[in-house]
Write the structure tokens for this entry.
Amino acid sequence: MYVMEAALKAMSNPTRREILRLVQNDEKPAGEIASNFPISRPAISQHLTVLKFAGLIDERRSGVKRLYRTRVEGMAELKEFLDNFWDNRLERLKSVIEASEVSRMEPSW
Amino acid sequence: MYVMEAALKAMSNPTRREILRLVQNDEKPAGEIASNFPISRPAISQHLTVLKFAGLIDERRSGVKRLYRTRVEGMAELKEFLDNFWDNRLERLKSVIEASEVSRMEPSW
DNA sequence: CGCTTACGTAAGAATTTGCTTACATGTATG
DNA sequence: CATACATGTAAGCAAATTCTTACGTAAGCG
């Protein structure tokens, strides 16, 4: 699957967004992350897999634990994608306005 | 469903993102929108319902046609939500750095 | 009114998602 | 080595998503 596609889908789930918030500032082990939710530990493990595949978190192994933390680059790429989505719109709108101004100054008929 | 939730879910589908691009600059009737995709017209109609529910498009009836166009406010709200999602992260990171600078100047032990 | 046009809505099938419980794996520790 | 601990993986199930085809509906036209 296209990475940005995966990232958007990953972001569209509230549990996964909350996980991202939890590991924003410092890495946390899977178990501790899971302890913050009412659902089972394996369910959280699966969400972590989705986030990792989407490039939104990093995994690091330390002894018996697996530490997760938000992956800044992945988040930045997604942000950029979304910014462009809206910026393109604004750019086109701007060009439409400019075109109409030009046509007022120099009629083409 | 929480509106922002609906908006994120709506954005996570590629067909719906393409619809948003199609009706970015000017309103288009449902049929014309559908003609741009390989899937059936009712399928597009259902996607339009999802986008409308999420507050990402506006619908206007003109005779027998229904004209759709991107809803700027909805898009702006979603953009703001996502900006805050990342900005909060950066804010907290910033405060952590500042705290460490303060502690270097005025050791607390 | 009867017919066409441009749609939405209903029903159902296939696929994906999000969970559960049970089990497997890898790392430390006595 | 044996056991415990932290976690992933497998299997299965219910609900949601995304399609399809068939049908309903409202606006315009002769």
User: Anything to note?
Assistant: The domain at 3-105 of chain B is CATH 1.10.10.10 (Arc Repressor Mutant, subunit A). Residues 13, 15, 39-40, 42-43, 46-47, 61, 63-65 of chain B lie near DNA strand D (CB under 10 Å from a C1'). The first helix of chain B runs from residue 3 to 11. The longest strand of chain B covers residues 57-62.
